[in-house]
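Record Acyl-CoA dehydrogenase family protein, 378 aa.
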Amino acid sequence: MEIPEHKELREVARRFLAEAGPKLREYEDKEAFPWPLVERMGELGFLGVFVPEELGGAGLDFFAYLALLEEMGGWASLRSILSVQQSLVLTPLFTYGTEEQKRRYVPPLARGEALGAFGLTEPEAGSDAGSLRARAYRDGDFYVLEGQKTFISHANVAEVFLIFAKTDPEKGAKGITCFLVERKDGVRTTPLKGKLGLRAADTGMVFLDGVRVPKERVLGKEGEGFKIALSTLDTGRISLAAGAVGLMQRALDLSLAYARERKQFGKPLAAFQLVQEHLVAMKLDLEASRLLAYRAAQKKVKGEPYTLEASMAKLFASEAANRVAYRAIQVHGGYGFFEEYEVARLYRDARILTLYEGTSEVQKLIIGAHLTGVRAFT
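=>
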């Protein structure tokens, strides 16, 4: 059962979306980053939901964060910004950062005064993150970073980057270290345009050409980078599941409204058994996904291992969101094929959910390893 603070946060999000939703479409059409909407989210405390108030956040709990992601899930470009900022940047900062690192970076990130990015994926290292080629060489009190990253959310708008690079290539994944890198250190970025969905969310490439980073900006310990990446992705997968739930809820709400209003053969679409079959299947996928997401979150909050539960939630919810978006188009018929109707955007936005932060295939391998005790990959 939700506590009053969670319900209040949901209401604030709904009021925000009532105003921001129509504006977001303009940014989607232009593939432009919605800075005014992001600034407003920062003012409302959306970018630091579970960050303590003394560090600039809203001081709520992880379940409040999931409630917000659900509400924002139907507007996936905005939801993506929340997920990257909190699941992929603030979460590892809180878990592995020193007190000095937290004081320096958390307040501006939590207030939305700066955005962060998670720099793991490379042109030749996607699902096989341990094979990344970025290098970090020690030079006195500094590390010198060389390499490039791709498909990085917030690449062109972030001021702070979590960059994963190998400090000891001979050790493979165990030789990866995570660095807190600032744009002013000399990071170069370039946009990646033409995405199927998330058209108002920034994506790009990151270039590290002799970027010098003080040794005090190692996050965690040298060689802990891969562990940090995996633990961060566990949290990210829960947030993606919650966002998928929100997308499904929006698709179902729009489909129910359309089915009640639209008439064929002299009666509303909602009166037809096969249309009801679509709506029922959508509801079942939605509620099953919500339960899986919250079960994983409960284990996380309790401090119990939750990698398996996070993978199951992410796998099921991301695939379910694609099924639900497909059914929403079917309910809307030919009208659903046109951008004028919101379900077309939901259909496009749903597709990425099975790809990033671990593809569906990778999630199956993770779950399979837990079931059998045998890893299909190292």
